[in-house]
Amino acid sequence: MNLVRNVRSAIFVDYQPLANLIARAGHVHRHLDWRNVLDWIGVPPFLVLEENGELRAALACPPDPPQVAWLRLYVNNGLLSDREVWPLLWETACSQLPDSPGMVAAAILQRDWLVPYLEANGFTTHQQIVMLACEYPQIDSMPVPHSFTVRRMFPYDLPAVAEVDSRAFDFLWRNSLSSLELAYRQAAIATVAEAEQQLIGYQISTRTSIGIHLARLAVVPEAQGRGVGYALVADMMKQAIQRGLQRFTVNTQNDNVGSLSLYKRFGFRETGESYPVYRCCFS
């Protein structure tokens, strides 16, 4: 029988077949994201590989924020080898990425089986994401400085939150407004720091099966070193403890000295889990 292979963009009728493929495949890479990976269908590049009309594999790396194409999905059902499938999908995906200066692709790996294929296409290790955990945190009793206040985050804050985010992080780690809107909807505790009616920091934390995960913390550069990050985390922890939640988790980059120092001040300790971040620059 002649085999007919076809790489095409995923469409909405592929949703359930792709869900089935992901559920049954042995090799699946999924990006840690606020969105369900299948919600990216319709946003290129989101590709599927068919063989005689049957879905065999898929790859998605839609840029968000605009200059960063995170590898959000790679799945192969195993009937074809990754050695065959990956180049077909990745080369097509690259051809669909915007030809803009500074465009990069990136991936956070939870397993190492994808490493040879990334490295063969110019990806190199950029950082490590390290996991930290804390039970019964150490919270100083010092009051919040009078130069700013910490309050609940509201939906109308989100454009200003996105501005804080873009100023606080390197472009690789920035969240778009749409991502922050999703994060806000999933938050258990979301607060902002405000000075002179301007947002200077924020945090978004989510519930886990064992407690609270500090998913995002950002402070604008000119307000760093003034206790803003500490006040946001301490306030979040106090709220969580009032709800009977005592275990906290967070992750950060292994070279983010400021964040690591802040978290360890509360009693966070590295769990030993870490995940490499791979990056490929197109220009």
Folded structure, characterized:
- The protein is α+β, with helices and mostly antiparallel strands.
- The chain folds into two domains: 5-122, Gcn5-related N-acetyltransferase (GNAT) (Aminopeptidase, 3-Layer(aba) Sandwich); 131-274, Gcn5-related N-acetyltransferase (GNAT) (Aminopeptidase).
- Helix content is 27%, strand content 34%.
- The protein has helices spanning 15-24, 82-96, 115-120, 158-168, 177-186, 228-242, 257-265, and strands at 5-9, 27-30, 46-51, 54-60, 68-70, 73-76, 104-108, 124-135, 149-152, 189-195, 198-207, 212-219, 247-253, 269-281.
- Helix 4 crosses helix 5.
- The longest helix is centred in the first third of the chain and has 15 residues, at 82-96.
- The chain is elongated and about 75 Å long.
Structural class computed from helices and strand pairing? alpha+beta
CATH architecture of the largest domain: 3-Layer(aba) Sandwich
Helices, by number, come to: 7
Q: What value does the Rg take, in angstroms?
A: 21 Å
CATH superfamily placement of the largest domain? Gcn5-related N-acetyltransferase (GNAT)
Beta-sheet strand percentage? 25-35%
Could you report the average pLDDT, rounded to the nearest whole number? 94
As laid out across the biggest beta sheet, the strand order is: 5-7-14-8-13-12-11-10-9
Shape, please?
elongated
Helix content: 25-40%
| Quaternary state of the chains | single chain
